[in-house]
Amino acid sequence: MMLNTLQALLSSFGPSGNERAVAEQVKALLAGKADEMRTDAMGNLIVEKRGQAGGKTIMLSAHMDQIGLAVTDVEDTGFLRVTALGGVSLEKTAGHAVVFENGVHGVVMCQPTKGETAALQHVFVDIGAANREEALAMVKLGDACVYVPGCYALGQHRCTSPAMDDRCACALLVELLRQVDAPRNTIVAVFSAQEEVGIRGAATAAYQINPDLGVALDVTAWGDTPETKLPAVKLGEGAAIKFMDRSMIATPAVRDALIDAAERIGAPYQREVLPFGGTDGAAIQHARGGIPAGTLSIPCRYVHSACEVIDLRDLDSALAILKEFVNGQY
After folding, report:
1. Which CATH number does the domain housing residue 130 bear?
2. Domain boundary, last residue among 147, 179, 205
3. Residue where a domain terminates, one of 88, 118, 147
4. Among 59, 65, 100, 210, which residue's beta carbon has the most beta carbons within 10 A?
5. What is the pTM for the complete model shown?
6. Does residue 195 carry a catalytic annotation?
7. ω before 162 within 30° of 0 (cis)?
8. Has residue 156 been placed in a domain?
9. pLDDT, tens digit, for every residue of 254-305?
10. Which listed residue (195, 196, 308, 324) is catalytic?
11. What is the mean pLDDT of residues 307-314?
12. Exposure string (b/e) for 267-287, b if CB count within 10 Å is 16 or more?
């Protein structure tokens, strides 16, 4: 079930600022499984499953958007100049195939730099156009492209695809809402917009929801490939419970409640200390006068590439922890 949900979400087009297709897919997957669904002005999809009398309100946030490239100009020869939507690197982008919302495909390449250090300003996208006029008949300035979707198995438990960041956590949140009935606490699930460009959607969502506590659901980096040892997180050893990253120090009470939930049911988990990056957890924590918040992470190799890799056993671990967590007493 989790894999089917994941594959459905990975196939949806959703660069930062244009998450509509992902939201529609989530709505279809959650039909009949929620008490309320609404979309706010930022494009966040907010799904509520009401809890029992006396329970708390828990905000869970997973972002729908993926990194991409937006068209800034078109050369006379038909090549597209682009700018980054989120954390796009030259190293991970050049040489990969991309697709626009209207189905136009292209390949990302880097021009010879003639002694300069190569950077994104040297990147162009080839969509097969012979000139500027032909290119502009295919795409417009401001249009965004993303890596061509495609999910493939790696061994028995792992799979690779663009947009694992953060569709794997969106799939996790969908499955939680589908499987949990009559929770002790009210779950307000936010499928957030524009995380990759500054955790913007979660900030406005947390302000309007004003939950008692919140948890971001996101990927984290890996430390289990050649010459990469930090963070001390490995695929297949369970979901990671964040202690800190560059954007936040997790609220101890929320962090410890996640650990307690994992230990009560014997679910595997890892302790995460990430010396960079950030998640929706920081946006929740900073909202209003401050909201207790933490992050539950899915270990992911090669983040922000066209071949992000996760282990499905870590998603299962995260789901088990969350099911226990949302029924806790706070």
Report:
1. 2.40.30.40
2. 147
3. 147
4. 65
5. 0.97
6. yes
7. no
8. no
9. 999 999 999 999 999 999 999 999 999 999 999 999 999 999 999 999 999 9
10. 195
11. 98
12. bebbebebeebbbbbbbbbbb
155 falls within a domain: no
47 has which bridge partners? 37, 189
pLDDT digit string (tens) for 158-206? 999 999 999 999 999 999 999 999 999 999 999 999 999 999 999 999 9
Whether 39 and 112 map to the same domain: the answer is no
Domain count, the chain: 2
20-29 and 2-10 helices cross at what angle (nearest 10)? 160
Do 208 and 294 lie in one domain? The reply is yes
Say yes or no: 210 and 107 in one domain. no
Whether residue 308 lies inside any domain: the answer is yes
Domain CATH number, residue 25: 3.40.630.10
Evaluate whether residue 78 is within a structural domain: yes
Q: What is the 3-state secondary structure (H, E, C) of the chain?
A: CHHHHHHHHHCCCCECCCCHHHHHHHHHHCCCCCCEEEECCCCCEEEEECCCCCCCEEEEEEECCECEEEEEEECCCCCEEEEEECCCCHHHHCCCEEEECCCCEEEEEECCCCCCCCCHHHEEEECCCCCHHHHHCCCCCCCEEEECCCCEEECCCEEEECCHHHHHHHHHHHHHHHHCCCCCCEEEEEEECCCCCCCHHHHHHHHHHCCCEEEEEEEECCCCECCECCCCCCCCCCEEEEEECCCCECCHHHHHHHHHHHHHHCCCEEEEECCCCCCHHHHHHHCCCCCCEEEEEEECECCCCCCEEEEHHHHHHHHHHHHHHCCCCC
Residue-number span of the structural domain to which 253 is assigned: 2-66+163-325
